[in-house]
Structures are given as C-alpha cells and as structure tokens.
Fold this protein.
Amino acid sequence: MSIRFTSKARRGMVALTVAAGLALGVAGCGSGGDDKKPDSSASASKDGGSNPSAQEGQSDEPLAELKGPDGLSLKITSATRDSGGFLTINGELKNDGSEAAVLSSQLTGNETEIMKNGQSFGGATLVDTKGKKRYYVLRDTDGRPLTTTGVQDVKAGGTVSIFMQFPAPPTSTAEVDFQLPTFSTASIKISA
C-alpha cells in the first residue's frame, strides 16, 4: 500500500511541477493586453543601467506570418536560443474569420505518444536546410510535448498566445524554416 501511495504521490508532484512550469511559461510569454512600459525602465536601458530582457528586445514586427485554414493566421513573434540548448518559438494565433475556428487535430502531429496527451502544437517542425536536419518539438519525460496545449478553438477575432520548444540548431545556423501542419511554411531568423 505504501509503495502504491508513494508512486501516485510522486506522479502527482511531477504533473503539478510540469503544469506549474507550463503555466509560468505561457504567462511569461503571453501578452497581457496592456503593452505600456513605464518610462523609468526605458530610460534605464538607454543609460546602460540594465540590459534589456528578451521580451524588451522583441520588435513589434513579427518574424513571420503563416496563413492557415478558416481565417487563421500565426504570427511568429520570437525564436530565441536558451542557454540550455533549447530554441523557444513564441507566437500569436489569430482568427480573422467571422466564426469560431476549430483547430485541426493535424496540429498535434501523428506520433502516438504526443496524440495521447490531447490537442497541442506537437506537429510543428523546424528545418535547417543548410545543415540538412529536421527538428521536432521536445517532450517531457512523460511524453507530453513542450508546447501550448488544450487550445481547441479560437473565437472570431480572437487571439491566443502560443509557444513551442525545440532542440536548438548549431549556433552557426541563423535561419530555419518553420512548419506547422495546415499552415504555410515560413523562414525565421533565430535570435541569440
């Protein structure tokens, strides 16, 4: 009985930790709607008082915009290398249609391990054409994709912030092709 309880408790703690990490990642990457920045932080950056964060370094111009079905579009807002050897893609999924757009199950991909974890963006890939390599979305130890999950649809005129995490290509690779099932392909530049 105690081994069973310990096993269940351990799984629960892992699930809670992963959920909290994903929630923090989505909250940190999302747009709160109020994009006003205080004047004091802008002047501190100008004076060299602090280095700008990755969020401050983003321009208003997206890296790429991919067209999808039913009035959906995906704006890639950043593609940033992390020090741990990961590449995080952030974007905004927008519905320009007049009705709610139900997301295709093809976005999840066709790998059984990812599909059993529900709707996600696990079907996304990066292609390094010069290095002739394809990179797939990373997974945690339980096989869950390291992407935004649970988005079933986007309301008419609505926007959803999303992220996907991949293994980082070599530092010599500065540009990759981003592919998402049912969407057009786009080349994006990798920062830092």
